Amino acid sequence: MVQGTQINRFNLTTLRDFLLRQGFNVVLVVVVVFYALTAPRFFTVANFISLLHAAAPMMVIASGLALVVMTGKLDISVGSTAFLTTSVGTILMVRNGVDPITTLVILLAIGALIGAVNGLIIVVLKISPLIATLGTMIIVRGIGLEITKSTTISLPEEVRRLGNASIGPIFVDILIALAIMVIIHLVHTRTSFGRWLIALGNDQDTAARLGIRVNTVSFMSFVLSGLLATIGGVLTLVQVGAASPSIGSGLEFTAVSVIVIGGISLFGGEGSILPGALRGVLILEIIRNGLNFLGADPYAYRFVNGAIIFIAMYADSLRARLPVTTRTFEAPDTPKSG
Amino acid sequence: MTTVQGSSVDNAGSLLTRLRQFVTAHRFFDILPILILVVVLVVLALFIPNFFNSRNIVNVFVQASTLGLMAIGMTVVMISGGIDLSIPSVMALSAIFGAMHLRDGGSIFVSCLIMLTVGIIAGSINGFAVAYLKMIPFVVTLAMMTIASGAAIWVTNSVSVPVFDEVFFDLILARIADIPRPIIIMVIMALIATLVVRRTLFGRWLYAVGVNVRAARASGVPTNLVIFLTYVISGAFAGLTAIILSARLGSASANMGNDGVVLDIVSSAVVGGVSIYGGIGSPLGAVMGAIFITVISNSMNMMQISFFTGLIIKGVVIIAFVAFDSLRKQ
What we know:
- The structure holds 2 protein chains of 2 kinds.
- By secondary structure, chain A is mostly helical.
- Chain A contains 14 helices and 4 strands.
- Chain B is 77% helix and 2% strand.
């Protein structure tokens, strides 16, 4: 009898651990199966390609933000960065006739600069990353609205055509986004910089004592985040075909949700780009895409998003309390020391 | 490349350490915010002749009253070491539910009750998640912000709900001795809140939790309850603000709680000397901060500086104040 309860309890614990570890994968499978059964045109190759197409900018932005979050910090200026750089780019091309390649280089420089400013404010002035990037988020958006006068500016025709560029049936921006994710994944798992990020996220003081230049690593993570937010913004810009104030608005909050749903802990030191961040992007995009097919009230999206974030956060907080051994098991990508 | 940047960053760091020592060593810096306010006011008096006209002053204070009330709620949460990003969207959602009740012929009293209740319910959910489920305040309230504004958009289809009720307007907006009631409500609430945090047991617990949760728990403070209550209080303030703002605007809409408002609230609190690291600050300070932020917006309006440049200036002000705050306290 006593033995029976013990076995029972043991099974319940393993089930709970399994759900916590695989929770988001379970959600992903359930959602896909549900939509496949209820929305006939959901489970088609064409729809998956268009889904990836829509998700491409977020894949890039989330990869950058993930690097910052892994150090236990936060960058909520990514949406504004995407907005400002795309506005500057469009104005350069349309009004000043700068060619697209030069424009792209200038934009990347601006994005990196915004990231560098964030990094400096946080590292040097020791301001909480949340408040610092909240400040730069307002400033950067203000600059963007000022130079565009809050209007929508269309891209030149030949650049706009790039938005539908595809190799066979697959859009080029999907390939770009996936390539960037793979690169960031390799940076995270195969380089010493990646290891330092995780060390910082686990315990900044210990990392500093081990001789890691914590300030430089934090600084670089913000620069990369600014850079990738810019690339994500450019992908959005080309898809939309015009720079508009709606680009990047509210995007920082979506990006944070993606990170959390992707199993990257906001406490830092944990999580992966592949499959983590990618999974986060896909879950949110699939839910949105499927709701669309089901003819749900578009006004309900934001509500559903909020509910998903809440559940994801709850699971995250539970997982943070699991024993360390299970956590190591959860994140096989965590590189060994040395 | 990284080494070069690293060393320059580190150099800047050591320079900052010296600056920090200088700042902490001089009492002068304690009154710097007040000094800045005085300078700003003098500049305003010189450049905008109409600014100190009594109608404009009353106008500024009425505008500041709603921001101030929300900043009081935020302050209570921030003293305990948390943050509540959901205040504006919860405020908008409560205003919408109350306004719908009023539109459908409900009584004013019940409408106001609905607004307060919605705020308190949302606050309780936040508080429960943070205090008992141990979720991170930033993300809990971020989720609540998305849920509440999502619900607000969903319920209204992004159309604003009109509030046409002369009795309601009179009740909320009437003047007592030439001072509109919103200002009086704000001042009274600021005083009550300041007394509560400074003179009651709850207040002492609040600061204790903000300074060090573990130490507070070890000395017998019911830390979970205190944290839970801070979010309930901020939710209640969101509801109270909803009542005043829906009367002032004559409508309720999802846009009342747009993302810009939360930034104004955080700025008010921070400018008013509330530390985002917890344990420091007072509601009265936050209300001062709210007035300061409103004065900035209002004067930039009168100087015909564009709204967008205003955003830039606000962002710089926030970072400057927090930088100053962290210089002083480390």
